[in-house]
Each structure stands twice: as structure tokens, then as C-alpha cells.
Design goal:
homodimer, alpha+beta, DNA-binding
Chain lengths: 263, 263
DNA sequence: CGTCTGGTTGATACGACTCAAATTTGGTGG
DNA sequence: CCACCAAATTTGAGTCGTATCAACCAGACG
């Protein structure tokens, strides 16, 4: 019996908007900052699971902000291969300032049903001229995104299948916890084994066998779209997970809600 | 006999500073913009080959800008494995705005002897408040960096050794050409086979054999730190190289100097 | 000269892939 | 509530790409 079935729906531990939750990992926001965030997230839309929100080649018109649900950024090759290059969680911006570019070089799809805010370039510009604190927070957001992308490069280049998968699970758990959507080593986990394969550069078959190894070693439980990390510390060790690249240590409030390897 | 030995030194086709060259792939700069760039690049320093310029864990104090030479950003794992996650060429900034972060999550080293400008946060701030065009260009620079990082993720996740190496060679050639440091399918190429291994997630032995395949297929010549791409179009095809992610198509001047697959 | 770094070669091992099929799960409609 | 179907997961057998280990060679350097 999982927590999710007990509460019967959204697996959410705090009710504040995920964006604010995410940016506050960097700096405390003022009432006005929060109001400004609320203002630009009024124009929203829903995307069905497995549907593209943005396609490679599109001309970018908005900055997208994930309000709820999971998404993925992916690139495809002419021979049909596909690589998921990032996972979007609630509170994530999909490329601040994309509209500077002529064409998208990748696609973005929904993993679960997703609620996204569509922010115009004008709204973004207004934000960055009027709200320096938020602007700083957006820069932090982009720097962290870049750091995550580098860590994925390292993950694909140097870690074994076992380590890669373990690392990805820990990263997603820690990121979810930072926005109040995970706790006690449990979280929603809507990625299929196929998605995991596309994200780790493995085949689905090998992902399946490797997950069984992780289960067999007593590190995780994963079923019915719920992840339970049985021993976070050991899983971090086994996957050589070092949380520094998430840069959650900015103000004194670092890991404020919970220490990283406890709870 | 290579061009380099003929000119006896720097393999450079134009004399304007690489930064300006690079940013002008995005937008034409005014005289004042160029002056502002020149002003912030006065404080320079030299780094010897194979020396670290920045180390993981450091507190960032400056924005670094590569004036000349090649560098690499890399991450290491506790088991000793190492992944090069980016290559820096002349004109590249190493993380606009890094100083927002507490600690570096990676290291940066010189590949060749490198000349770098050290820019203070104050200088960067002045630039972004006084020179909107340059600020826009810096955003473009960062968006392109992010796109390159995603392409590397794709490269490591989905391409074979042969494709991976081919792709990397083409990328570096195209990037060099965009700053006027390559032409006629030739360029300086100071990376060792060890470096290539660290960048592609392969072993040096396998890089060696794969380069021999590329040579055997009549695609490249590579010796004495000089790369000659014998058939760019075929190499691009063989490595599934699509230049869209470099976003060199901004203004009408796209690929102004030379069409991408000719010359 | 000897030493070192970078490049090359050969033999062998193994991690991950491929192909193919069976089983389970979740959703849908009767 | 059950029958049905598609999607997701699981299992097995055989193959292949890349790693590993161990030499050896060439040129650069002090």
C-alpha cells in the first residue's frame, strides 16, 4: 500500500507553487516577487501524456514553465535513436530566453499530464527589469540546469549501467524533495523502463535487468509508478552521487527541510 | 606539409579578437560594444598546458574568457574516471555569471598554453546594464553552450564510437571556422588521443583504432596536431552531424564566410 | 643518451545489445 | 464484474562492441 493510494491523488507535501519552492532553494522571495511570479503564470495549458509540447525546428515563442506534472526534453537521430537529455519537474523553466534563438534544436514532451505556463518574451523582460532578486534566481536556475546537463554527460560517459540508473533515481528524488514533492525516501515516479532507457543510453531490456539488481541489493523498491529508496546513503555511494552539482547549498537554509542523507 | 608549418606559428586566418568574432555570429557589434569588450579583457593571465585554471570546489571569483588557446572543462569520479564535458576555444566564456554559485562543480584545465581574461562580477554587471546588445549576445552564447552540452549528451548516449569521434571532429572544426581559425577543412587540433577518450567516454586504445578506421575510410587525416577533413560532407553524414544546435543561423549573415559543406 | 609522453598493436574478457517470446498490468467497454 | 487489448515488464539465448591488459615503438626533451 503506497502513500499515494492513501491520499488518493497528488503526491504533494506542501501547497505552495512549485516555482516559488524551487527558486527559494536559492534565495528567499519577497511578497512582491511571489506576486510577480503569480502574474506571469496565469496563461496556462494542459498537455496530455506522451504528447509533444515543443518540436525540434519550431520557432520558439514563449518561455514554458512547468506548473505540474513531469516532462522530458529529447533529441532524435536520423537512424531513429532517441536520447532524453533532461527531465522537467514542477517548477522548472524550459529555457529562459529561448526566443533569442531562431529554431528549437530539440523537442519537449509530456511524461504525465502536464500543466504548463506560457510566458511571453515581454513578460520575461518586464520581470528581469523590475525584479532583480527574481532575475538573480533565474540565473541561478539556468546555471543549475547547465550543471545538471554536465552531470548527465558524466553519467553517460563514465558510469556503468548500474551506477547510471542509481544516479538518475537519486537525482530525481533529491530534486523532487527540494520542491516538497517527496519525503521519507518515497516519491511518484512516472518514468517507464523505456523512458529510463532513453535517458541513460541503455536498452529497455538492460534497464529491466539492472533495476532487478538494484532491487536485489536492497537499494530500491519501484512499482506502480512509485519509487521507494530503501537506503539512500548506500544508493548514493553505489552510484557515486555527489549533490554538489544541484547547488542547493546557497543560503544558510541549505537542505533546510531535511538533511540530505537522513529521513 | 601542413599550413601551420608554412606560416610557422599561430593558425589564425583573421586578426580580430576571437570574442568579437564569436559573438558576431549572432549579431553585428557596434564600435562601442567592441570597445566595451576590449575594456573588460584587459586583465589577462597565461595558463600552461595541462594546468588547472579552476578546480572543483573553488569559490568562483571571476568570469573567465578564453582569449587564445584551447581548454577543457572536466569532472572526475571518486574511482578515478574522468569525463571532459566541454572544450573551450578562443572567444568562449567559461560560465557567464558563475559567481552566483557558491562552489564550482567541475574543473577547467588548459589543453594548450592558454591566454584568459579575468572579468570581475562588477565589470560583468556594468556590461549588462550599459550594453543591451552585448547582453543579448551573452545570452545567445549561454544558450548555445547549453545546446552543445545537450548534443554531447546525445553523442555519448546514442552514437557508436565511430560516429562519436566523427561528430566531435566536425563540431570542433565548425566552431573553429566560425571564429576564423579554420579553413579549407583544416585546423589546429591539439587534443591527444587520451583527451579524445576522456571526451567521448571511450578508452584511448579504442580511440586509436577508431581514428584508424576514419582514416582508412578516407574521411580525415590527423597528425602532428593538425586535422584535415578530407570529405566534410561524408563525415557529417557518417556521424549524423546536424549543425542546427550551434545556432549559427541567426542573422542573414548565416555562415557568411563560407557555406557549411563547401570549401 | 635515458626517460617520458603519446601512439600503435595483439590477445582476451565482459558488459550491454539483439531478437524473440512470454507474462503482467492497466485501461476500456460490454 | 468480466473480456479484451495495448502497453509495459520480464525472461532466455546468442552476439558484438568496447574494455582490459600487456607490450612495443617513435619522437621530444633534458
Amino acid at each position: 500500500m503506497t502513500l499515494r493510494t492513501l491520499v488518493g491523488g497528488e503526491f504533494q507535501f506542501n501547497s505552495e507553487p512549485a516555482v516559488a519552492s524551487k527558486l527559494e532553494a536559492f534565495t528567499r522571495l519577497s511578497v512582491d516577487d511571489r506576486a510577480a511570479l503569480a502574474r506571469i503564470t496565469h496563461n496556462t495549458r494542459y498537455v496530455d501524456p506522451r504528447r509533444d509540447l515543443v518540436s525540434e525546428g519550431d520557432r520558439p515563442r514563449h518561455v514554458h514553465l512547468v506548473m505540474d506534472g513531469w516532462g522530458a526534453r529529447y533529441k532524435s537521430l536520423p537512424d531513429g535513436k532517441r536520447q532524453i537529455v533532461s527531465i522537467f519537474l514542477p517548477g522548472d523553466f524550459c529555457d529562459v530566453n529561448v526566443y533569442i534563438l531562431r529554431h528549437m534544436d530539440h523537442s519537449i514532451c509530456a511524461i504525465t499530464r502536464m500543466k504548463v505556463a506560457m510566458i511571453t518574451p515581454e513578460e520575461m523582460n518586464a520581470l528581469t527589469t523590475e525584479r532583480p532578486r527574481l532575475t538573480q534566481a533565474l540565473w541561478w536556475h539556468e546555471l543549475v540546469n547547465a550543471a545538471v546537463q554536465r552531470e548527465w554527460t558524466l553519467n553517460l560517459g563514465q558510469r556503468t549501467a548500474y551506477e547510471r540508473l542509481g544516479h538518475l533515481l537519486v537525482e530525481l528524488y533529491v530534486r523532487l524533495r527540494a520542491i516538497g514533492r517527496a519525503n521519507h525516501n518515497r516519491c511518484d515516479f512516472p518514468l517507464t523502463q523505456n523512458d529510463l532507457a532513453d535517458a541513460t543510453g541503455l536498452t529497455a531490456v538492460h534497464v529491466n535487468r539492472t533495476l532487478q539488481e538494484l532491487r536485489g541489493d536492497g537499494l530500491i523498491e519501484l512499482e506502480r509508478r512509485q519509487l521507494h529508496i530503501l537506503d539512500l546513503e548506500r544508493l548514493m555511494g553505489a552510484s557515486m552521487f555527489n549533490p554538489n552539482y544541484l547547488h542547493l547549498d546557497h543560503e544558510e537554509q541549505a537542505f533546510g527541510r531535511e538533511r540530505l542523507t537522513s529521513g
